[in-house]
Amino acid sequence: MSKLADRIAHERALRDNVCIGEVRVTSPARTLVDCALLYPFEHVLSMFDSALRRGLVTREEIVAVCDGLRVDCGPVFRLLHYADARSENGGESFCRAVSIEEGFVPPQLQHTFYSRVTGKEAGRVDFIWHTEDGRIIVLEFDGMQKYIDPEMTSNRDVRQVVRDERRREQDLKEAGVSVVIRTNYIEVVQRAPFVMKLMQAGVPRAGAHPIFEHAD
Questions:
Q1: DSSP string for 86-142
Q2: What is the per-residue DSSP string for 41-101?
Q3: What's this model's pTM, rounded to 2 decimal places?
Q4: What b/e string do you get for 129-153 counting C-beta neighbours within 10 Å, with b at 16 or more?
Q5: Of 9, 11, 45, 166, whose CB has the highest number of CB atoms within 10 Å?
Q6: Is the CB of residue 125 less than 8 Å from the CB of residue 172?
Q7: What pLDDT digit, counting tens, does each position of 35-85 carry?
Q8: Whole-angstrom distance between the N-terminal and C-terminal Cα of the chain?
């Protein structure tokens, strides 16, 4: 390797690393790229969502890291295509990633509905799909914390939380929602019950997965 090539490689390595105290670690962008190349899509999408939401990295910085690597960064560009800073937690990101992996159209995130009668807010939902026949499908990802964490339940017991959920679903349907699906982490991990719910509700399917390449 020439001296020029050595210097370029050294400068690139420094650019891809940062210091925390006296410890040198990879930069957020380089860390995301490394994880994208090592681990499955459904486990890494939450990292991309979170990093973008928290402003730790930009899409351009991630692309710049890929430009300096002599490897196929297709998995990275696929994650960049689907990454969304509006995802509010890792569970929602994982749920969305599995739905994409199972061939469903990527949903819209964090949509707020309003009553057709009063104009008041009927609820903000995790995921939403619009079907060709005009239906609106909502998916809510429920963590167990919402039933047991006092900060999330506002000190309500489980029965009251469930009653409030049913009332909220009714408000959403009065706001134009056709179907409300509820799922949880266990169903998403198992996949089959999660996929069955999406299919029974008529969530639209996507075509074949596109091939993601870096455009020059």
A1: T--SHHHHHHHHHHHHTTBPPPEEEEEEE-TTT--EEEEEEEEEE-TTS-EEEEEEE
A2: HHHHHHHHHHHHHTTS--HHHHHHHHHT-SS--HHHHHHHHH--TT--SHHHHHHHHHHHH
A3: 0.79
A4: beeeeebbbbbbbeeeeeeeeeeeb
A5: 45
A6: yes
A7: 999 999 999 999 999 999 999 999 999 999 999 888 999 999 999 999 999
A8: 25
Q: Which of 32, 46, 157 is nearest to 100 (CA)?
A: 46
Residue whose entry in the numeric block shows the structure tokens 């979170």: 50
Pairing of strands 179-184, 136-142: parallel
Helix or strand run (H / E) with residue 177: none
Residue 123, Cβ neighbours under 10 Å: how many?
Answer: 19
**Residue at 100: amino acid letter:** I
